[in-house]
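Could you join me in thinking about how sequence relates to backbone shape in a protein? Would you write everything just below, so we can both look at the same thing?
***
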Amino acid sequence: MSSSNQFILNNPPTDAISALKFSPEADSTRIVVASWDKNVYLYDLRDENGTVGEGKLLQAFEHRAPVLDVCFGNTENEIYTAGLDWDVRKIDINTGQQTVLSSHEAGVRNVVYSREHQIIISGSWDSTLHIHRTDAGTNTESQPVVVPLPSKPFSISLTSTKLVVAMASRSLEIYDLKALAVLTAQADSTSTNGNRVEVEPWQSRESSLKFMTRCVACMPGDTGYASSSIEGRVAVEWFDPSPESQARKYAFKCHRQTSEDGVDVVYPVNALAFHPVHGSFASGGGDGVVALWDGIAKRRIRQYQKYPSSISSVDFSSSGKYLAIAVSPGFEDGTDGVAEGVVKIFVRELSETEAKGKGAK
């Protein structure tokens, strides 16, 4: 599969891709990738000549177990990782040094960084969030604030002011980031009990979707979020609790195919990502399809040709010019796993209007 506006990154991971993220720096073409092969990879879409094409692998950072999530920190020279070794790690790209910020009591599914509040938040299958101060440096005695959750988190996403945690039992909790940042500032950095704190969420909600949540992604305008399920549906909701705003929420079917005998085959929606400029969003499914949606107009903008395997992760660059697509086997049925097959990273260079909504001016 090749086209004038799409290419495949060189030197992909050797096992399934669990997450990929673009650098938040303006016009940056760097991307980090977490894999089940126990490594985190740093790529640049530009080759040695500065040309965007097949890109180049800059560095790989080995871990003790499969890595489930990764994100950039305050600059693109620091990244944070989470995985099945139960650790949350900071990696200094310039030196290659890895620092364990904290250890959960089970695998760590997600890690996100808030630039506005300078905190790292990790979500683990031990049903807790760890809130880390980035100014703690390499102080190994520094303990995170531990926030108990009512159930296991499956996906987390944040805006400049809010953190959305999608959990088992179809529950979601929305936290005020400023309140979480205040907790970390007040915490005793030498506490031996991990600073476990009961935190009242800003809002608690039940998912609009009837089946297990697979992914949640926040809108760039800090107004709401989209969530997806293992049963081929996406829900779009707004933070504003007013009846007028809540009446706008909706859900729709997607990532379904009709088999030869006429049966509707439903696939999980594994990945969601919002365009930073136009506010549209991309969805990636177990059917190997990526689609772009206008969440306001409630319309599909376009659907790309089918990829060779299921889609495990998608992300837009900070400029919105590029869309990275992780193709990995083992994500067809709504569970992360290891399977034989093609592992590739496709990058689409988008035209100025390719991700623009139908009703956008």
